[in-house]
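Annotated sample (chain length 183).
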Amino acid sequence: MTAENESEGVIEVRIQALAQLFNSFDPSPFHERDLDDDAEQYIVGWARELPEDVKLRLVVYLPKEEAEKAEKRGLDAALSNYFFERAATVDRDLRELFRLGRRFLIISIPILVVCLIASQFARAAFDAGPLASVIAESLILLGWVANWKPIEIFLFDWLPLKRRRDLYRRLAAAETEIRVWER
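Output written by the structure step:
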């Protein structure tokens, strides 16, 4: 990986054959094939290391025959399609997480309200003694614990998914350059 200028992040991949980039078990047409897991981890790992505000460029070094094959088969479109689909998948996961968070809130907010009201009744029923305090505080605690998961989702859980989706979008928009190298 190198950076030729500060406004662009370059990820370099050197392979012997075009087939090394793609999952050999995927029967899809070339421009729709999945990347090999190791190739994806390598590319995504380097992209993650680059600043978020730089444009990405992927440079693939191949022997001459393989480079010609990559040009002819549309390697740039295949990589762009793959990362676009990965971004769409993570975007669906993000929407599902928010949908789940809303469902959790629909359940947990009424529980909190009931627990807060019940804590007031407990204080009145037990004449504000130590038992009343224990029951009232336990009910309040239960109400807030019931809200822990939706709070966690809306404050923290969504951010890693958004960052991954944005990274895949950046990779989908990256310019792909094929260069010839001699062994």
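Annotation: The first helix runs from residue 37 to 49.
Annotation: The chain has a mean pLDDT of 90.
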